[in-house]
Amino acid sequence: MHLTLINLFKKTVPGHIFRGKRRLVKPVSQRAMDTLTREYERQEQVMLLLRNPYLTLEQSAGHAKELQKREKLVAKWTQEQTLSKMKPHVTIEERLNQLKIKEAWD
User: Fold this and answer.
1) 20 near 26, Cβ under 8 Å?
2) Buried-exposed string 13-39: b where 16+ CB fall within 10 A, e elsewhere
3) pTM (global) more than 0.85
4) In the chain, which end has fewer C-beta atoms inside a 10 angstrom radius, N or C?
5) Phi then psi for 86, rounded to 5 degrees?
6) How many CB atoms within 10 Å of residue 8?
7) Residue 106 pLDDT class (50, 70, 90 cuts)
8) pLDDT digits (tens, 9 = 90+) for 5-16
9) Can you tell me the distance from the alpha carbon of 24 to that of 18, in angstroms, rounded to the nearest whole number?
10) What number of CA atoms fall less than 13 Å from residue 3's CA on the CB side?
């Protein structure tokens, strides 16, 4: 009974508590500020790595040729390999061939 009365007369925000004119706004804590600061520092480190590439343009030109990635990719999609994975074509005549007993009409 007492819990019901407390819940009934509790002063809360009308409607959805995080939307609208009378919404409940969470106060900014020090932990949230520290988390945001760490996130910005991490993004800055990533941007620094992206701005300064590991290889120069001369070094990066043609470095994948030795790995032969393109040739392996093309070899993977050859006609023989794709046909070997597929089932052979079956016609209706081959399906209904078992119904043939004799050719002559009686």
Assistant:
1) no
2) eeeeeeeeeeeeeeeeeeeeeeeeeee
3) no
4) C
5) -85, 155
6) 7
7) low
8) 677 777 777 888
9) 5
10) 0
